[in-house]
Amino acid sequence: MSYCVNCGVELDKSAKKCALCATPVVNPNEKNEEHPQAPPYSSTLVIPKGVSRKYVAFIISMVILIPNIVCVIVNLLLPHTGSWSVYVVASSALVWFLFVFPSLMSRSHPYILLSVDTVTSLLYIYIFYALNKQEGWFSRVAVPLVALFSLICLFMVKWLAKERDGVHIAMVVLAEIALFSVFTDAVVNYFYVTGRLIFVSIPVSVSCFALIGFFVFVAKNKRFRAWLSQKFFV
Questions:
Q1: Quick check: 190 and 197 in contact, CB under 8 A?
Q2: Structure confidence by residue, pLDDT tens digits, 38-88
Q3: Which of 30, 20, 33, 29 is nearest to 4 (CA)?
Q4: Which neighbouring-strand residues pair with 24?
Q5: What is the dihedral sign for C-alpha 7, 9, 13, 14?
């Protein structure tokens, strides 16, 4: 046990100077070691991973919040410019729930996040629907499309719970793109009564199924798959 010769503070064995008055520590009876002891405290600040993520989420939240407050104040001071700040606030809220809110959760809860994203997306679309006062399209177009997209995401979450290879993932994603494009085409055309239930989605679906056929060939032909892996390092 040693003490500082200047202020009398008890010193750690590995201390090179006094922590209180910065007086150098000199002990003539101590032998020089090739591997000195580690200092009693670290010189670098280490932030735990969870705390760091929440800290970044807080900073991003402030970056989003402050401009929104400014926009609302300016819009209130200039009411003749319309209610444009509502669009800004709604868009910022949607971005926050989609990208920042997951960082605040200690563990990943995909079903909770998917439910929150579905509700916030519908509310965001409804704000545009209510402000523009266009009848019908929210319940007949927006709700079915958001619901189908959420169901597709739910299926992917459950399906990817088990390990899948890239070829099968690509085939499933392409099939979902074809399904969503056909459903979107049918819903939009039915709402606007165009006379054709499916039109734009045909080339999209044909392209997707052609690619699915290619991936099926890749999955079944081991020699061709090995050649692809050797040629493109995949």
A1: yes
A2: 555 565 656 565 567 788 888 999 999 999 999 999 999 998 988 899 999
A3: 20
A4: 17
A5: negative
Residues in the chain: 234
Q: Give residue 155's pLDDT band: very low, low, confident or very high (50, 70, 90).
A: very high
The structural domains of the chain, with segments of one domain joined by +, span: 1-46, 163-234
> In degrees, to the nearest 5, what angle opens at C-alpha 196 toward C-alphas 194 and 198?
125
Helix (H, G, I), strand (E, B) or coil at 160: coil
β-bridge pairing 2-3 and 10-11: antiparallel
Round to whole Å and give the CA distance between 201 and 94. 28
- Where are the strands (E) in 125-210, listed by range? none
Encoded tokens for 149: 């997209």
Rounded Cα–Cα distance for residues 105 and 108 (Å): 7
Q: Which residues contact 67 (CB under 8 A, 6 or more apart)?
A: 88, 92
This prediction has a pTM of 0.70
Buried b (16+ CB within 10 A) or exposed e, 205-215: beebeebbeeb
- The span from the CA of 138 to the CA of 135, in Å, is 8
- Taken in order 99, 105, 107, 108, the sign of the CA dihedral is negative
Both structure tokens of 128: 């545009």
d(CA 21, CA 17): 8
Average pLDDT taken over every residue of the chain? 85
11 close to 2: Cβ distance less than 8 angstroms:
yes
